[in-house]
Design brief:
The structure holds two protein chains of two kinds.
Chain A lengths: L1 E4 L2 E10 L3 E3 H4 L7 H11 L3 E3 L7 H14 L10 E5 L10 H8 L7 E5 L5 H12 L7 E8 L19 E9 L5 E7 L7 E2 L17 E2 L5 E2 L5 E2 L1 H23 L8 E4 L4 H11 L10 H4 L7 H9 L8 E9 L3 E9 L4 E6 L1
Parallel strand pairs in A: 2-17, 5-6, 5-7, 14-15
Antiparallel strand pairs in A: 1-9, 2-8, 3-4, 7-8, 9-16, 10-13, 11-12, 15-16
Helix pairs in contact in A: 3-4, 6-7
Chain B lengths: L1 H11 L19 H15 L16 H10 L2
Classes of the chains: A alpha/beta, B mainly alpha.
Chain lengths: 352, 74
C-alpha cells in the first residue's frame, strides 16, 4: 500500500536506552559454540556491545521515563498531546493496553486517543503512518508515537543467533501538523511467512505450560524454549536481501525522487552484514546508510530507527534533511517512508 | 579454486569432515549464519562481491554451486 501525506512532520525524537552495556565477549561462554567461530561471526554481524534491561523493567517504564524527561525539560507539554500510539511486541499486560499505562502515568486528558499496535521491526514506519493519518483529523494536532520493546526478556541467553544482537530501547517521536514538504510511505505484508520470527508459546494458541518452558537445543546448537523468540535465519535473511530493495525503489519511484536526493537512509538495524548488502544492492554509500546501531546498542526492533536517528543525526538536526526510513521484520512486514527532517525540537539519547 | 573453497569451509566448520561431494546445506553442515561467514571469507579470498539476492541456500548447497556463484560474482 502506498501513502501520501502533506504538512505532517516529525518535530522531535528521543531515545531511551538502558544504561547497562553488555559485551559479546563476556557472554561467549553462554553459547554452545566454539569461541573462534563465534568471534568470526562477531566481526561479520557487528556483535559488540548491547544494552538491555535488568530485572522486570518494562516497555512502559522506558517510555514513561522518557516522557517525564521531556516534560520536565519543557520539551513536551502533556496537555497538548492529542493522541498516543504505543507500538510494542512486549506489552506490560495482555489487558490493558500499554498506552493506558502511559496515559495514567502522565495523567493525560480523557479525550486523548490511545492506541496499541503489535508490531516489531517495521513498527516505526507503521507507527508514523498511523500518526500522520490521525493528524488528518481536525482536532488532532500533536501525536506521541512510542516504539518501545524489552525483547531481551523473551530471547534465550543461550541463543547465539539472536541474543548477541538484541537490544532494548524506547523511541519517542512527536508528530505534528506543520508546513513542510510531502511525505511518502509504502508498506507490504506477507503473512504466509509469519513463522520467520515467532514466540511460539504464551498466547492463546499455545498457553504457557511446564512443557513450553523446557530448554532444547536446535539443529545448530542454540538452546531455547517455546517461550523464547525463534528466528528462521535463512527465511529472514532471504527476505531482507530480496524484498527490501524493491520496496525502496518502488517508494522512490512513487515519490519521484532519485536516490541521490536522499541525504540519509535510516534503516532498521538487523545486523552489519545485512545492512552492507542492502546498501550495495541499492548502490547507496555506507556513510549515507549508517549501520552502527547493533554494535553500539543492539537491535531494538521498532525502536532501532529512532535510535539510529538520535545516534547519527544529533548535530545535523537544524539543517533540512531528506531521509528514507525502512523497517522490516516480524509479520513479515516491510515498510518505508521518505520524509523531511528539519528544526527538530530535540534529537537526543538518554540512558535509563 | 575447489581446494581453496574446501579449505575455507573446513576452517569455518572444523568439527565436520567435508569433501567436494558433501551436501552442505541439506546435510546440516551450514546454517544461515555459517553462510554469512562463508560469504565474507569467499569475498576476501576471491576478491569478489556476492550480491545479496544471490545469498540463498541453493547457491551454497555444495562445492560446485559455490564455484558457480564465485564465477558469476566476478
Amino acid at each position: 500500500m502506498l501513502f501520501h501525506f502533506s504538512d505532517k512532520a516529525i518535530t522531535g525524537v528521543l531515545s531511551v536506552i538502558p544504561k547497562e552495556d553488555h559485551l559479546f565477549e563476556d557472554e561467549l561462554s553462554n553459547y554452545n559454540f566454539p569461541e573462534k567461530q563465534s568471534l568470526k561471526l562477531k566481526k561479520v554481524m557487528g556483535y559488540n556491545k548491547h544494552a538491555y534491561v535488568s530485572g522486570n523493567t518494562t516497555a512502559s517504564d522506558l517510555a514513561i521515563y522518557g516522557l517525564e524527561h521531556l516534560i520536565s525539560e519543557k520539551l513536551l507539554n502533556a496537555d497538548e498531546i492529542d493522541a498516543l500510539i504505543f507500538v510494542t511486541q512486549t506489552p506490560d499486560y495482555f489487558i490493558p493496553p500499554t498506552s493506558s499505562i502511559v496515559h495514567q502515568a502522565l495523567s493525560l486528558r480523557q479525550d486523548v486517543y490511545c492506541l496499541d499496535i503489535n508490531q516489531g521491526c517495521a513498527g516505526y514506519v507503521i507507527g508514523l503512518i498511523e500518526a500522520f493519518s490521525l493528524l488528518n483529523q481536525p482536532h488532532i494536532n500533536k501525536v506521541v508515537l512510542i516504539n518501545s520493546d524489552v525483547l531481551s526478556r523473551k530471547v534465550s541467553r543461550q541463543d547465539r543467533n539472536s541474543f548477541p544482537l538484541i537490544g532494548d530501547a524506547c523511541g519517542i517521536t512527536i508528530a505534528e501538523k506543520k508546513k513542510t514538504g510531502d511525505t511518502f510511505g509504502i508498506s507490504r505484508s506477507d503473512g504466509s511467512r509469519n513463522a520467520g520470527l515467532k514466540i511460539p508459546a504464551g498466547g492463546m494458541k499455545i498457553p504457557y505450560s511446564s512443557q513450553t518452558g523446557e530448554m532444547k537445543a536446535d539443529e545448530s546448537g542454540n538452546i531455547r524454549s517455546l517461550e523464547h523468540l525463534v528466528m528462521d535465519g535463512t527465511a529472514v535473511f532471504n527476505f531482507v536481501l530480496t524484498d527490501v530493495s524493491p520496496l525502496i525503489n518502488d517508494l522512490l519511484k512513487f515519490a519521484n525522487f532519485d536516490k541521490e536526493e536522499i541525504d540519509y537512509f535510516l534503516f532498521h538495524q538487523p545486523n552489519k552484514f545485512l545492512l552492507q548488502k542492502l546498501a550495495d544492492e541499492l548502490a547507496v554509500p555506507y556513510d549515507k546508510m549508517p549501520g552502527n546501531i547493533v554494535e553500539n546498542f543492539g537491535n531494538s526492533s521498532g525502536a532501532s530507527i529512532p535510535v539510529n536517528i538520535t545516534f547519527n543525526l544529533p548535530d545535523k538536526n537544524q539543517s533540512p534533511l531528506k531521509v528514507c526510513f525502512a523497517g522490516f521484520g516480524v509479520g513479515l512486514t516491510w515498510s518505508a517512508m521518505i520524509a523531511d527532517i528539519k528544526n527538530l525540537d530535540f534529537c537526543t539519547i538518554i540512558r535509563y | 579454486m575447489k581446494s581453496q573453497i574446501l579449505d575455507i569451509i573446513r576452517n569455518l566448520k572444523p568439527e565436520f569432515t567435508i569433501d567436494e561431494t558433501t551436501q552442505l546445506v541439506e546435510g546440516g553442515y551450514l546454517d544461515s549464519f555459517d553462510i554469512v561467514s562463508l560469504v565474507v571469507e569467499l569475498e576476501a579470498a576471491f576478491d569478489i562481491k556476492i550480491s545479496g539476492i544471490k545469498i540463498r541456500p541453493e547457491n551454497f548447497k555444495n562445492i560446485d554451486a559455490i564455484i558457480r556463484l564465485i564465477k558469476e560474482s566476478k
